[in-house]
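Section 5: illustrative case.
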């Protein structure tokens, strides 16, 4: 288990490195080294590296402070509730050692990643790049599944990724396990990755749950403002002999504040419905599989993207197999004319051309979830009929990239469900989220 004292030691090392870098700039005289010259950069965090690029490190991070209000389906009784929380509060340390080794450590002070036993790490990985363009990666990191997940949370267009990602959260979340991944990139035109992971979930024999992920991308056009992107994804894990395995098909439907860490959420009033499945110890499950297709097109300041996903969970008991599919379609336009960046199978940041007014982006996204279900459920917050369930979510938002580091966002979300309601009987709801982000 990774304890907090580990992080304190790491933080002490970083503090010492920072002090050394600052003192080197502040004290008069000549700074020398016993090897290659050192270059220090302070734009976008602190970066220190040798001129031969054999050694170096960068200290950065991101802070995302959210406030949201929501009503109707999003709350147990349909009344208005709100939430103010840190969606992410990362300290990020990454670097290169001995030319061919890279490392990345991201610690989440908002506690939305990890836990108290394993440390609140979003990532703690080591990569070997000596076989470039083949990269070997080891440690704790998110398995790859989907275009929106591949895009950094700093630069994903909407405030929350699409609603179906919650249904398949195990496919692209590390869940405190560790894994190994091999990836290959052909310029900016093609990308393939495959990984095997050991999750922090054990079966009755003490053997951890094993997971396999695959992602493949081709991009005939692959530069900012000129993108044509296609991708395919697959993930599988075995829940055989796992008592109380979490096979819930549930989603926050774009409104994180109904249940989150990092501050105050709806405090048990928020509705996070289960469209199908259960985590009951009385039920047994077998293979859990997910598929995904992704596509994107960008021309100048306009971009269009979408993903289709499907999940199937095989039953190993008397209950029925589970199945659900979903998709989203998103259109975005930068009013000030800038194009979204693109690199290695994912979208990147928008960099303001005008330093006075920044860059302004508007977008609309439509999410859809459909799940096969034949079991009724009544919980403290929602009611589900013994019938197939659905949800449709509309998201309309604006992003202001005030600088390359500061982003201010607002998003309105409207949800409509079928065969699942809150306790009050509401099958629709509205929500609004605002975010202030600083990334360095």
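Designed sequence:
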């Amino acid at each position: 288990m990774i304890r907090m004292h580990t992080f304190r030691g790491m933080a002490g090392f970083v503090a010492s490195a920072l002090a050394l870098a600052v003192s080197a700039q502040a004290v008069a005289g000549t700074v020398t080294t016993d090897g290659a010259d050192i270059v220090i950069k302070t734009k976008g965090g602190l970066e220190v590296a040798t001129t031969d690029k054999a050694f170096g490190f960068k200290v950065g991070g991101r802070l995302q402070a959210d406030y949201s209000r929501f009503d109707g389906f999003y709350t147990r009784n349909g009344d208005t509730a709100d939430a103010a929380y840190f969606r992410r509060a990362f300290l990020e340390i990454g670097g290169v050692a001995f030319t061919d080794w890279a490392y990345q450590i991201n610690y989440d002070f908002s506690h939305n990643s990890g836990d108290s036993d394993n440390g609140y790490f979003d990532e703690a990985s080591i990569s070997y790049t000596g076989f470039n363009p083949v990269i070997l990666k080891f440690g704790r990191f998110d398995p790859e599944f989907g275009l929106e997940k591949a895009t950094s949370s700093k630069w994903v267009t909407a405030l929350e990724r699409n609603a179906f990602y919650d249904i398949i959260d195990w496919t692209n979340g590390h869940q405190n396990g560790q894994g190994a991944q091999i990836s290959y990139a052909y310029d900016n035109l093609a990308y393939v990755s495959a990984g095997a992971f050991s999750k922090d979930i054990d079966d009755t024999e003490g053997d951890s749950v094993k997971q396999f992920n695959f992602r493949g991308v081709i991009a005939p056009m692959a530069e900012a403002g000129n993108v044509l992107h296609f991708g395919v994804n697959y993930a599988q894990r075995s829940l055989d002999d796992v008592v109380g395995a979490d096979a819930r098909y549930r989603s926050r439907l774009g409104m994180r504040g109904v249940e989150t860490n990092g501050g105050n959420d709806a405090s048990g009033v928020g509705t996070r419905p289960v469209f199908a499945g259960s985590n009951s110890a009385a039920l047994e499950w077998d293979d859990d599989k997910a598929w995904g297709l992704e596509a994107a097109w960008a021309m100048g300041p306009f971009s269009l993207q979408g993903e289709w996903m499907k999940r199937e969970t095989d039953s190993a008991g008397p209950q029925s197999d589970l199945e659900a599919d979903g998709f989203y379609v998103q259109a975005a336009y930068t009013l000030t004319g800038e194009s979204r960046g693109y690199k290695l199978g994912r979208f990147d940041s928008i960099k303001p051309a005008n330093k006075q007014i920044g860059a302004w982006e508007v977008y609309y996204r439509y999410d859809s979830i459909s799940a096969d279900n034949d079991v009724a459920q009544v919980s403290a917050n929602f009611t589900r009929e013994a019938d197939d369930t659905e949800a449709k979510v509309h998201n309309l938002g604006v992003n202001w990239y005030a600088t390359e580091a500061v982003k201010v966002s607002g998003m309105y979300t409207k949800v409509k469900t079928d065969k699942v309601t809150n306790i009050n009987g509401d099958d629709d709801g509205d929500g609004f989220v605002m975010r202030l982000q600083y990334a360095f």
